[in-house]
Amino acid sequence: MALLVKNGRVINPALQTDDICDILIDDGKFQAVGKHLQADGAVVFDASGLVVAPGFIDMHVHLRQPGQSGKETIASGTQAAAAGGITRVVTMPNTDPVIDKAIIVEGLKYKAEREGVVKVDVIGALSKNQEGKELSAMGAMADAGAVAFSDDGHYVESADFMRKAMEYADMLHKLVIDHCEDGSLVAGGYMHEGAVSNELGLKGRPAVAEDISVARDILLAEATHAAVHIAHISTKNAIDMVRRAKAKGIRVTAEATPQHMILTDEALRGFDPRFKVNPPLRSEEHRAAVVAGLLDGTIDAIVTDHAPHTWEEKDRSLNLAPSGFVGLETSVGTVLTYLYHTGSVDLTTIVRAMSTAQAEILGLDAGVIAVGKAADLTILDLHKEWVVDSGTFYSKGKSTPFDDMILKGKAVATIVDGEIVMKDGEVLR
Ligand code: DOR
């Protein structure tokens, strides 16, 4: 049945438009975009006072399948995405087994078709078993639909391996995504190395670990002419280097998470493992640099690094708890509250970073509201106040540093291929 989204403020960065208008959807595709549209028999969604954006994408998500379904599944993770206003997630390969073969990519795509509430794309590992030694079956995985390659969770230590991986991925017209933290510098560290870690007497993970690895990857991208994407960038120097590399025409892009734009290492003072994440929450200087990087286009994308763990695993002391936490159900709210409502970042930049830019980086036919394209939309109420309650999350992961926070702004509907899969926080599939 046709769906008519009426009177919303449609922000469409791909076409550089921001206007009150209607959107007619049928057969899963946009049929018309304009003023005063009519369609007999169509279901009408009144978007008056709401923002209508191209479907939000999250290109850095851990759905934990195969092998870790106690932490998350395609079903629970995509429900969480729908609840958070995300229409498409891209899942990372640090699973058990690692996603390093075509058959695993195929299996996940098959499962996602059946169990996914939102769209799922798969990132294949760069190396077999993510050991950083032998190239994975990248060609076969690309044929099976892998959209990019990464050893996320682990830094690719060998420059020689990384160079080959970039060259090979580039032949396949695929992107390499790197988790940039030099292992020798971060070994045994639990938080950002700085004044707070010194005061607490905790071993830190220094910013220079990220800087060195980002520098190497940029130099390799320049030498190979391949594209590299820096995952969850978090340091001032790394951002400066990406800024300069982009100005030189090197094919580098970068993403940042809400946590690295909102929180700092001060949060670790209570030794609370909910704040443990890699790369770590850094000092104010770095946090401000991440926001500045987003504003000037150095940082292209806002992603969550949604990293669910079981409560038993996460509810341990800081040194024993695993790194990472969930983000799919809080990213829109935290970004709107702390970046938009504070006047730091404008809405078009946010929509581009949460949708359009990610589609461009990965070469996905998405991130734009245009006739004939798949009708994926995220509808936002900028003024809705709500309190984060991890107990109500659809995700199996309940650990979030944002628990109990009062937020302003929320996705109130998620539309995938023309179907409303979430309305007012309730997932309908
Ligand atoms: O804190 C993290 N956890 N950072 C990552 O890059 C990986 C993630 C995970 O998979 O748990």
Automatic annotation (TrEMBL):
- Cofactor(s) for this UniProt protein: Zn(2+)
InterPro entries annotated for this entry? Amidohydro_3, DHOase, DHOase/Allantoinase_Hydrolase, DHOase_cat, Dihydroorotase_CS, Metal-dep_hydrolase_composite, Metal_Hydrolase
The residues the record assigns to binding Zn(2+) 1 are H60, H62, D152, D305
Of the GO CC terms on this record, one is: cytoplasm
Q: Which CDD domains match?
A: DHOase_IIa
| Source superkingdom | Bacteria
Q: In which pathway does it act?
A: Pyrimidine metabolism; UMP biosynthesis via de novo pathway; (S)-dihydroorotate from bicarbonate: step 3/3
Question: Which sites bind Zn(2+) 2?
Answer: D152, H179, H232
- Keyword Metal-binding on this protein? yes
An example GO biological process term is: purine nucleobase catabolic process
| Function according to Swiss-Prot or TrEMBL | Catalyzes the reversible cyclization of carbamoyl aspartate to dihydroorotate.
Q: What is this protein called?
A: Dihydroorotase
Query: Which gene name belongs to this protein?
Result: pyrC
